[in-house]
Design a protein that fits this description.
Blueprint lengths: L9 E2 L3 H11 L12 E9 L5 E8 L3 H13 L3 E2 L1 E3 L2 E3 L1 E9 L1
Length: about 100
Amino acid sequence: VMEAVNTPPLPVNGKTNYDNYLKEQIRRPESLAAGDSVTVVISFTISTAGAIEAFKVVSSPGDDFSNEARRLVMEGPAWNPAVRNGEKIDEETRLRIIFK
């Protein structure tokens, strides 16, 4: 009996490269004081076609941060959909974006 392999949605270029992309491309909102750090938590669904759908802000200190988090994800590297029992499925994922 083959073990079913389930994988979550993942960036096509790998988690490490995706994290580097976020760090390099993030634009600090002017409302963030020097030395401060805030985290935005977002969720979105990666469809079987790899599309980013149902984008939601779970927690954020403000619109400046939410909008930047959305821009980063929407303009960023593509994602591979989750796979369950060998089939691609739509699956929600959460992402923390740290502004500092």
